[in-house]
Write a structure and sequence with these properties.
Elements (H helix, E strand, L loop, with lengths): L10 E3 L8 H11 L1 H8 L8 H33 L11 H24 L16 H5 L3 H22 L8 H28 L4 H7 L4 E3 L2 E4 L2 E3 L20 H15 L15 E5 L6 H18 L4 E5 L2 H4 L6 H14 L5 E6 L16 H15 L9 E7 L6 H7 L3 E3 L6 H12 L15 H11 L3 H15 L6 H5 L2 H11 L5 H57 L2
Parallel strand pairs: 1-2, 5-8, 5-9, 6-7, 7-8
Antiparallel strand pairs: 2-3, 3-4
Helix pairs in contact: 1-3, 1-6, 2-6, 3-4, 4-6, 4-7, 6-7, 9-10, 12-13, 15-16, 15-17, 16-20, 17-20
Length: 569
């Protein structure tokens, strides 16, 4: 698989209703001995239980799709070999056969594991299967390899049944749950062994090559050996372009340069041409454009790599991705994200971690919990290069509204710091409000009053509004322009007709109206801030008075006790 990605046809494996050949897949599961092994453990008066049948149905469905995926990849591989120009019958090498086998079993696990999770608890798995014999399994023809993998699953059930008490539980429902959970554990351990071989072993170059091709199997889209949802790698990014960024140019250009340096990473040699600091840190008040700048850099990075056939991913770290109520789970998930989704990806990777300061409590607080210590340890490993190498394969943009971290954390994260200010000049503000936020309404906003925009820019500079506040002003102007009732003919018109009616009914606003919206917004928020400051002051005074009164009461009680002790009364 050496041709350019632009010349590679997509590999699409779309199952019809009812699957490709479920009868053949059912025979495959039966021949492997998995059904027999499962039946021995959960034998019911009339055969299998409902739960064991659902597990077998999941195995049949996964085997059906994995078989088709493996055969499709094998056919594509033969086409790539034949494309070299030789008329001889193509014959895959041992490594190429292992590549097809590894992808087949990867699909098997990716389909089977979530279906087993729906019918029984997901097991905690520590470690992976031993690699002895794995390569011999992968070089087998697709059907034989699948059959052998399912046979190993049955043998694993039998071995674990002799070691663990769950297999001999007196209640049938306990035995069947144990059996399905143990089956799931084997699938996850096999996936771990395959990951080791495909991410860091001899099959890694095949994963890099596969990532340059569009591969969709059922509902899964593959980037190399890693399955994602069909929406693609940039699903977390907002549709922001570089032209949408106003101000923050130094920060933006530093991010773009870092993105290009990471795109230049040599995936075959597994080293980058430059030594670089992979972390870009931005500090700025809320609404200054930190998030939109990071998303614009992410989109640029993906487009830049796509145009050059470089497999790439951009990951947005959200608190819901890793924060857990279970002790030590948060740090473990952070490590998993960076080891598997970032560094374990076959191509290059960019990361955006917003509000990173909220994830790490200060060690100087004196009451640092075990969970917070583990989080700090994880992030230190990321930025020190002890968790994943700082070798140019990845970069990360992170930001914060305030410097709430201690010195040790700041020194690691803010190695390449930037102050992000957003728009600062009158021209910046005018470009943001008029051209970016209200660009589609230009015919209705201060049409023919170009000279007046200088006053608008000066007013915005004086108000020192953030980019987010300017967006609120723009939304108020938009609401005024498009404040009309829909006529009946609107609902009978097609899309173009509806656009024409909106254009006809929209109202105009002049420079004075724009200035008025800015003034109203500033006045409202100034009053709100003053009210909030007054309420905060009153709360603090009330708290101080309460403390003083409590102190006086305590002093009075102590004095009374002393008098009583002296007088004996």
């Amino acid at each position: 698989m050496t041709a350019s990605a632009a010349n590679l046809p997509p590999l699409l494996v779309t199952p019809p209703a009812g699957g490709f050949d479920r009868a053949a897949a059912r025979d495959l599961v039966k021949e492997s001995g998995l059904a027999t092994a499962l039946h021995k453990l959960v034998r019911a008066p009339f055969g299998h239980t409902v739960l064991s049948l659902r597990a077998l149905d999941a195995a049949i469905e996964a085997a059906d799709l994995a078989l088709q995926a493996g055969e499709a990849l094998h056919a594509a591989l033969l086409e790539d070999i034949a494309r070299a120009g030789s008329l001889a019958l193509p014959e895959p090498t041992r490594d190429q056969r292992m590549f097809v086998g590894a992808f087949t079993l990867t699909v098997l696990g990716d389909v089977l594991a979530p279906r087993l999770a729906l019918i029984a608890p997901t097991p905690e798995v520590h470690g992976e299967l031993e690699s002895d014999g794995l390569e011999d399994l992968l070089v087998k023809p697709t059907r034989e390899g699948l059959k052998s993998a399912l046979a190993l699953t049955g043998k694993y059930l039998e071995v674990q049944a002799q070691r663990q008490p769950g297999a001999t539980a007196p209640r049938l429902d306990e035995r069947e749950v144990w059996a399905v959970t143990t089956l799931h554990a084997f699938v996850l351990q096999l996936a771990g062994a395959l990951r080791r071989l495909t991410h860091a072993g001899r099959l890694r170059p095949f994963g890099v090559a596969l990532a340059q091709r569009k591969v969709v199997v059922g509902d899964l889209r593959y980037e190399g050996f890693v399955a994602r949802g069909p929406e693609g790698p940039a699903s977390d990014l907002k549709p922001v372009k570089l032209g949408d960024i106003v101000g923050n140019q130094e920060y933006l250009q530093a991010g773009l340069k870092l993105a290009r340096d990471v795109a230049a990473y040599d995936l075959k040699a597994r080293r980058g041409p430059k030594q670089l600091n992979p972390v870009l840190f931005g500090l700025g008040r809320p609404g200054c454009g930190k998030t939109i700048t990071a998303h614009a850099i992410g989109n640029y990075f993906l487009d830049f790599c796509k145009q050059r056939d470089v497999p790439a991913r951009f990951k947005v770290i959200r608190r819901t991705d890793w924060a857990s109520s279970y002790q030590n789970a948060s740090a473990a998930t952070l490590v998993k994200i960076f080891k598997e989704e970032v560094y374990g990806f076959e191509g290059v990777c960019g990361v955006y971690w917003p509000d990173i300061d909220t994830a790490f409590a200060s060690r100087g607080s004196g009451d640092l919990r075990s969970e917070e210590k583990n989080n700090l340890g994880a992030v230190f490993g990321i930025f020190d290069g002890t968790l994943i190498p700082k070798d140019g394969k990845w970069f990360m943009i992170c930001d914060a509204n305030y410097m709430q971290m201690d010195e040790a954390t700041r020194s690691r994260i803010a190695q390449n710091p930037f102050t992000v200010r957003g728009p600062t000049t009158a021209d910046d503000y005018v470009h943001l409000l008029r051209d970016v936020l209200l660009g589609d309404l230009r015919p209705f906003v201060a049409q023919g009053e170009d000279a007046g925009w200088a006053e608008v820019g000066a007013a915005l500079v004086k108000a020192d509004l953030s980019g987010r506040s300017v967006e609120s002003v723009a939304n108020n102007i938009r609401a005024y322009v498009q404040d009309f009732e829909y006529p009946d003919e609107y609902f009978r018109a097609d899309y173009e007709g509806r656009r024409a009616l909106i254009h006809k009914l929209s109202r105009r606003v002049d420079i004075a109206g724009v200035q008025r919206e800015i003034s109203d917004y500033v006045s409202f928020h100034r009053e709100a801030e003053e009210r909030e400051a007054k309420e905060r002051f009153e709360r603090e005074v009330e708290a101080m008075v309460g403390q003083l009164n409590a102190g006086r009461a305590a002093t009075a009680r102590a004095a009374a006790a002393a008098v009583k002790e002296i007088t004996g009364e």
